[in-house]
Amino acid sequence: MLYIPFDDARREMKRVLLTRGCPDDKAQKVSYELARNSLEGVYTHGINRFPRLVRNIDEGIVRLDVMPVKLHGFGAIENYDGQLGLGIVNAAFAMERCIDLAGTHGIGFVALRNTNHWLRAATYGDQACEAGMAAICFSNTMPNMPAWGAVDARIGNNPLTIAFPREGGHVIVDMAMSQFSYGALEKAQLAGQQMPIDAGFDSQGQLTRDPAQVIASKRLIPTGYWKGSALSFLLDIFAGCMSLGNTVAGIGRLPGDEHGLSQVFMAINYKKIDPDHLTGATLEDAVADLLRSTPDEHTERIVFPGQRRQEIKRKNLADGIPVDERIWAAVKALG
Amino acid sequence: MLYIPFDDARREMKRVLLTRGCPDDKAQKVSYELARNSLEGVYTHGINRFPRLVRNIDEGIVRLDVMPVKLHGFGAIENYDGQLGLGIVNAAFAMERCIDLAGTHGIGFVALRNTNHWLRAATYGDQACEAGMAAICFSNTMPNMPAWGAVDARIGNNPLTIAFPREGGHVIVDMAMSQFSYGALEKAQLAGQQMPIDAGFDSQGQLTRDPAQVIASKRLIPTGYWKGSALSFLLDIFAGCMSLGNTVAGIGRLPGDEHGLSQVFMAINYKKIDPDHLTGATLEDAVADLLRSTPDEHTERIVFPGQRRQEIKRKNLADGIPVDERIWAAVKALG
């Protein structure tokens, strides 16, 4: 394992993007966010994913020379065509637009079609929090999971983030609708480990913790079983229909690697309905109550959603970002 | 089992509410929605729950003579104090206000404090759909579940509904954040059955499908394990903070049965950003794709979220609503 300083990671990825003709401001933004994802411990959606992003650029399904174009708007709601631009750039644009709309209307709602993987959902929740607003954002994906009760993958794992600003660290949930990603299953398989809970079905339809069985059957389970399956479908409907874009079904009919996604962004300017500043104390009380939980037999301590990434960030800022030698070599070799 | 016609069920509950001095329009609304919940197969949140509602009225924690009072507003977002009124009446009021706001601003967002159990989340998603709008609504609850990794109940099962209108039946998810309710566990225990998947921890901290073990340990699991735990907390923060009301922690400090809840309602007037009416075809394509799923070994057919309730409604309209004799006798005896 190598330990790469944040700035080195960012600079190296920016260098590669510039070799593809990426405009400087976009290369700056994308390399910064990818490095930050790794810095905060979301390694799968940081540097590790960069070679795939570059491949998608080279394949022409991620375009460097476009920005979202407005389709329609009415008051606080708008939809945009992302023109298959960089997912991080498009999503940050959409959230910025939500924040502007929420400045005027109290809430902003943007649906975005024809966009690409935004990498990490929490990025855009965090963006709203930094502007003093709460946020809800979600994306659809290619079909990668069977609906509950089905064997063939027709729903997406459609990531969702919900974020609320907090002085001592924003409270943010960032969750995909599959209980485990293929990445997590493959990692456990390589390490010869079982998953801590049921991870999917084997080819006979029995729930199993064995990652190899689930990888073979391709029968991931939705988070919350039937509940996550239904939630995934509704998030997809919202994103695909309101953006006038692709649902998971439509994305599944596109050739090549995952692209042409639909996303929804909301920012809520809640401070405008809290003129006496009551929210902060309520939030601190709720966080404190959660942290007073008694840990169970398997757990050292209880954290609030978003707490761990702050701690990892501090550690990785001091020690460097842990990056697999082969991945770092692959990034260095791009150009 | 008795089979009670919808109108009889509604009339009997209305009669009881009137004996408590409930205004006629509220008695009409509450009895209609409770009967409809049973009609559509949500028995736990229909007639079965009516005796508890009447008890809560008699205890004075559900008040019949109040309506929500506006606290603050800015553009499309508003918050209200529900004054501990009837949960169904308050929630329908809040969603109606969202629909009005969305008529002007494209989206309406209402946070409601000091309210009571809304019975069935989908009711308010359905209300938006009937007005041609999409909706997201959620409520907090009393603390009834340990956070993931904890043994003591400090988070709520905070129900969530997401709804999108559809001519052939609205697409609606309605889910609480516990994988199973105590009601579902008790039903299985009485029937001597195991749950189909892990339902919680036993007192030694092992995952178990045995409802008796989970009831004894009080260690329900969140839907999606760590994911539902975090999602539950964020829904609570949104509802409690934005309504300037109670979070789950605050509700846990109130004496007596669950009351003083906080809720969030959103209606999205998405047709205003779909002037060419593209959404309907996209939605039908997504539903059709889902229904083409190949069922697994345990499943006869795949349905879309919201489909089953329509089918149960047709059956129960024809045959009457199945009601346990003892529950119906208890309702008849109220007065």
Helix content, binned percent of chain A: 40-55%
CATH architecture of the domain at 68-272 in chain A: 2-Layer Sandwich
User: The biggest beta sheet of chain A, please?
Assistant: 7 strands, mixed
- Which ranges of chain A are low-confidence, i.e. pLDDT below 50, for 5 or more consecutive residues? none
> H/E element string of chain A?
EHHHEEHEHEEEEEHEEHHHEHHEH
What does the average pLDDT of chain A come to?
97
Tally of DSSP helical segments of chain A: 12
Largest interface by residue count? A-B, 91 and 91 residues
State Rg of chain A.
20 Å
CATH fold description of the domain at 68-272 in chain A: Ribosomal Protein S8, Chain: A, domain 1
Principal-axes geometry of chain A comes out as globular
Say how many strands of chain A there are. Answer: 13
Major sheet strand order of chain A? 2-3-4-12-5-8-9
End-to-end separation of chain A in angstroms reads: 23 Å
CATH class of the domain at 68-272 in chain A: Alpha Beta
Please, what is the oligomeric state? Answer: homodimer
- CATH homology-level superfamily of the domain at 68-272 in chain A: Malate/L-lactate/L-sulpholactate dehydrogenase, NADPH binding domain
Tell me what the structure shows.
The structure is a homodimer of 335-residue chains. The first copy, chain A, is α+β, with helices and mostly antiparallel strands and 335 residues long. The first copy, chain A, has a domain at 68-272: Ribosomal Protein S8, Chain: A, domain 1 (2-Layer Sandwich). Helices cover 42% and strands 18% of the residues of chain A. The first copy, chain A, has 12 helices and 13 strands. In chain A, the strands form 4 sheets. Chain A has a 7-stranded mixed sheet with strand order 2-3-4-12-5-8-9, with helices on both faces. A two-stranded antiparallel ribbon of chain A has the order 1-13. In chain A, strands 6-7 form a two-stranded antiparallel sheet. Chains A and B meet through strand 2, strand 3, strand 4, strand 8 and strand 9 of A and strand 2, strand 3, strand 4, strand 8 and strand 9 of B.
